[in-house]
Amino acid sequence: MPQLTSILEEASMPKDPNHYKTGFWGRGASCSLCYGIVSVMVALSRRSKVLEDPEPAVRREVCSAIYRLCLGVSVSGEPMESTLVAPMLSQLLLYLKKAESMQPQKIEAMQAPEEGKEPYGPACRDYFWLVSLPDELVKESLEEPQNCLIDINELTNKIAQSILSRDYLETRHRTVDDDGLIGLLNLLTNLLKHRPPFQTGKGGQELLVEVFNFLFALPNPKLRHVPKCKSPRSRTAAFDLLVELVKGSPQNYAVLHEKLLKQHQPGPNSPYPWDYWPHEDGRSECGYVGLTNLGATCYMASCMQHLYMMPQARASILAASTADAKHEPTLKELQRMFAYLLESERKAYNPRSFCKVYTMDHQPLNTAEQKDMAEFFIDLVSKLEEMTPALKEVIKKLFCGVISNNVVSLDCGHVSRTLEEFYTVRCQVADMRNLYESLDEVTVKDTLEGDNMYTCSQCGKKVRAEKRACFKKLPHILCFNTMRYTFNMLTMLKEKVNTHFSFPLRLNMAGYVEKQLMPQHYQEEKLKNSDPESEQYEYDLIGVTVHTGTADGGHYYSFIKDRTAGSRDKWFLFNDAEVKPFDPNQIAAECFGGEMTSKTYDSVTDKFMDFSFEKTNSAYMLFYERCPVISPDNSESSSTTLDSDNILSSPTSQPNAPVTFELSKELEDWIWQDNMHFIQDKNIFEHTYFNFMWQICGYIPQTILPVQPNVTQKATQLSTSFFIETFIHAKEKPTMVQWVELVTKQFNACQEACIWFLEHMARDTWWPVQVLLKCPNQMVRQMFQRLCIHVIQRLKQSHSSLYLQVDREDSDEAKDDKKPVDPAKIGNASCITKFIKTLLSLMEHGAKAHLKHLTEYFGFLYEFSKMGEEESKFLLAVGAINTMVHFYLGQKVNDFVDVSEGEEEEEVVALPTDKYKPASLDKMITLVASLVEKSRDSNMRLQLSEKDYNAVAGGKGFAFLYQQIKDNINLQQTRNLIHSLCRGNNQLAQAIICMVSQAISRHSEALFNANSTHLSAWSIHPDIC
């Protein structure tokens, strides 16, 4: 160290006293390096700069300097002779316990960091990067532990225990990365790359199981904090650790293989939807759930979100008893909706069931008809008031106010008063600049005199009087309906007023209450009333509903203030299913209406002109909440004082999460059952997991192959199950081709895997049905078809001799009785033929419902028939032609009746024609024609079974051929089929020509217009004639 400091001191002194070099690369750089070395040494003796310095850049620079010094690299990048690595790392590891204890900052306490940057404050991320042990040191410690300062085995066990005992610090929404957990996972992964004894021991297997649970444990109402790894970085680190734990370890791989295989088996919620990506349908990052728009239900969604965001109303509705409640179905559906908005992990709730039970004007809500939001709000609040006594009390206190209409006689001194309850205050917008002017209009004094004198109700005389309305009682939530819609008496049309109309964030109602406008009467009432009204007249804006569009139609959305603990003064946009943060400074621009100006280019003057037009978006409903009374003991009193007994904070909820309420067990079980399935889907459908599975299925088996040769079969089962059950269902699958290549290579390498694949699909039709029939993606269906063909070709050489093998007992009986063999007894000796028979059975069970997807299904059967003579003979032996004909004609195989001439023909129920039919059944006609031709013996005679022949050419009217021609399906192959049937059979040829001629004359010209060319070709074909 003295030598190093002397060199730096010499470099910092000027060589020429008359020459002073300035700039960054002069003496300043040397001094900077000196201080850098000093700071490094201080950091080694004190952890303040590495762990506790709040500035990320300072921590990074200090760690970089220590790292260079450990590796023996100078500032210029040149290597230096150094032996400091082990001593420095041993010193740094002394602070491992301190680094582990550091927790991520609470999101409320953090200053919002810039994109991609660390938040300000102490952190351990750079420390864990610094202590990543060099490979040479780890190798030396494992080979010669007595000569190394660091005991790697002990360190590995210690870190594993730290990972297992670490608290659950990451949250599901708006999470902050747990750098301590991520650092420990990465450090342990680095150690396991060198295969310490811990990996293959009992501790390694136990850690594997726990880390798997860190990734895939599902939360429930009692364990909301699981799994431990929720952020993308921690999950990536955990996946990397699992890979290292199973690398080269057959025992660990077997444990992980079993767990992963269970995740990709058909279950109660299978199959996954096609083009599925649950991360797009997850709860918004701000923690709230939207409502799906069913067509024109935005008015309802806005109203429900305002009601839900009022903690008092939410708590009361969820706590209400549905027993003996009026409007019970509505209350139950409202509770389901609020419970879903409160607890669900999905993006939005579908309110269809609510719309079915809610009636307005004695009719269920029509989801295609837009209603006025203010009318719906009043209707909903009125129904809530009628449901239960407890709800009535809450609704009255929250929304119900009283306006007094006063007429004061100026001659006789009498006063007439009428009281009127209100839920919303209607305020004029036309010719008004702001809300205060509109309130002035509501409470303006009007003098009745002259011809308009008032008849006193008490003395019966005509007297002069003053008429005035004022607010006698103000509710806790004050709702305003801005009257943006007017009726034009000239045009007799409804119009929308788009003029500028402002409203304050804090509203003072003191000038509009009885105390201010009628003080004498107020004092009299105050003396009579022992429970006077609150004299707090200030209100804070808590919500705005905006209408955009015209008076005839448009869209509602809302800006709502969050009033739960930890989220005060945060605003959110609720626009149907979308919920996102909103800047309240933009309220004026988004809600006041008025005009806006934009620049428009005028090609005549070659200038940009100012163009003004009215905004179509403006506030339609305003929601204000009474400000809390500030007491000396509590400077910030809660504004949610009503029904506080019903508001319960969950012990597992985060401070920044919405307030959690008690739900009934029925609602809680319903929501969390759905949540668990959805969270599992999110854990599986992510690119990090897909990359992990790629390593587990492709790379890891290669590391185990030398010690366990049969691992390829296991790996193929897992990769095939994952690929078919999960991967092809994903919306984002950029590595589709690579996965197909991997599975193909694995089938090439393992014949047992091929047998398992076909046996599995022969026993269970789930994969063929889901992929070959139901999948809407043609590329996926083609991929599956080619994969099945490839597997069969791989097994053909060893299985072709088994295709036509008959069960032993049935074979002996057939020889004795000389009866034809039952097709069901053929082909049970090979997995290939069992799979083909299973596919053929699908034509009777489920294929008709997916007619437009059958191109690849019949294409597969046709490709199978082209493989060789054995394949064609097998299809003929099991009655494939008969099966396909009756599938096409819409009948079951055993229902076929050969109708002789003169008898009434049984009605043929054909499949419905649609635009997909020709394309999807082309291959079927090709296959039938091909099999008929291949059935010829050495004498060129057809050797079709009686059932197959009757299906194709039997019955009165040749139903199969007639329907083909009528449906215009692959007429080229239909011609080939007729040619094959009629060769050497003049009687059949004449009958078919007769059928065609009669069909042409019987049906209209338009029906057979498209087929006329082919029909004329048949009629002159020499072989047919």
From TrEMBL:
Protein family membership: Belongs to the peptidase C19 family.
Presence of the UniProt keyword Oxidoreductase in the record: no
Pfam families recorded: DUF3517 (PF12030), UCH (PF00443)
GO molecular function, one term: cysteine-type deubiquitinase activity
One of the protein's GO biological processes: regulation of signal transduction
Protein keywords: Hydrolase, Protease, Thiol protease, Ubl conjugation pathway
Listed PROSITE patterns: USP_1, USP_2, USP_3
Start and end residues of each stretch annotated as Disordered: 634-655
Superkingdom in the source lineage: Eukaryota
Organism: Aromia moschata
Protein name in UniProt: ubiquitinyl hydrolase 1
The protein's Enzyme Commission number: 3.4.19.12
